[in-house]
Amino acid sequence: MTFDAIGIAGTGLTLHRKWLDAISDNLANANNASATSGPAFQARYIMAQAGEGTSGAYVAGTAYGDANGVIVNDPNNPLADADGNVRYPDVDMAEQMGELIMAQRGYQANAAVVDRAKETYEAALQIGK
Asked: Which of 61, 69, 68, 63 is nearest to 91 (CA)?
């Protein structure tokens, strides 16, 4: 049972890394304008799922934001249509920053579990010497 700690924390590390990747993509594309004739950048949202028993947590899938985005009047934008409108992604920067902090803390917590488990395993090996 004790040796499951690194495996379980490893699944958490993977889940949080994928969550961080999605958030960073969302933040990087939050201000990308598109022509109104095409879709806006669609934000990615990672869906987590608990594994069975002590198998950890996993990515259950990815949900995407609205491709319609938000229409903004920006006649100086080279992508503007005849009415001066462009399409921006519907990405809430404050929400994404909050999720970024949660994902970072989750990643750090799982990394700390791996570190503590490693120390415990090393101490257990020293008992037999």
From this structure: 69
In this prediction, what percent of the chain has a pLDDT beyond 90?
Answer: 80
Place of tokens 């924390």: 9
The terminus-to-terminus CA distance of the chain in angstroms comes to: 23
Q: Is the dihedral of CA 119, 122, 128, 129 positive or negative?
A: negative
Query: What is the domain partition of the chain in residue ranges?
Result: 4-127
Exposed, middle or buried by CB within 10 Å (0-12, 13-18, 19+), for 41?
buried
Backbone dihedral angles phi then psi of residue 118, each to the nearest 5 degrees: -60, -45
User: Which tens digit of pLDDT belongs to each residue from 64-93?
Assistant: 999 999 999 999 999 999 999 999 999 999
